[in-house]
Fold this protein.
Amino acid sequence: MTVHKLRARLESSEVAMPGHFFSCIRAARMPVVILTMMTLFMLVVLPLFAGTKILHRWVLTGQPMPQLKKVLVIAVVENYLIRQHFEDEMERLLDDAGVVGVKSHMVLPPRNELMEGELKQRIKESDLDAVLVIRPKAARQETREVITGGFYMPPPGYYTFWPYWNMTYTQFSTTSSYMEENTVVSAEFNLYNTKDEKLLWSGETDTVYSKDFGKLGKEYANALVKQLKKDKVIGKK
C-alpha cells in the first residue's frame, strides 16, 4: 500500500478518531524534515572538516601546572612548508592565549645540523618555560565511502502508531556514493618543562594528510591549542 493511499484511508476515518490525532501527526512531520536535513548535512559536510583528531592525551597531575609564558614549538617534520605553516599558526594561536610562541624554524638550524648538546645549551640560556615537540610516527592508508545523495524513508508504522512514531529513528538509504582513499598520519606531541625537563603534557593524533600544506598546518595547530586550553595547560590559571 502506497503512502498516499494509506493517508487517504486514515483521513477518511477521521470522524472515528480524536481530532488532535491528525494535528499531532502533521505537527510531528516538521522534526522529521529537519532531522532528515541535518542527517544529509552531517553526511555531506562533516567530511570536509575531517582534519586532526586527538586520540588520547596525558596531563601532569598531583602537582600544580607551571605557568607557561614562553614556549618553543618544534615540529620535527621533513616537509619545511608544513613545519613553517604549523609553527606560524601556533605562534598566532598561543599569542591569543597570552603565551609567547617561539618558532623553531626561525631560531634553530635544521635537525641534522643541530647537536643535542647545542640545543640543551640554547634552551638553558633562554627564558623559555617549556618546549613543545611534535613528530610524525607512522602513516597508513584508509578507505571510506563518501555519500553524495540520499532519501528519507518513514519507519514502519509511521501513520498508524503515533505513540511510537515520534520515538523511531530515521532511516537513510544511499542513492550514490564513491570510495575515497586517504593517507592518515599518526603523530605524537610532548610538552616539557625547561626548568626540570619533566613531561607536562603528552598525547597522540591522527591527521588526514592534505597537499594543502597551509590548511594542514593550521588545522593541526588549532587542534593542539584547543586541547591545551581545555586541559588548562595554558590560559588563565
In short: Helices lie at 3-12, 19-45, 80-96, 104-107, 116-125, 162-165, 213-230. The longest helix spans residues 19-45. Residues 136 and 187 are 4 Å apart (CA to CA).
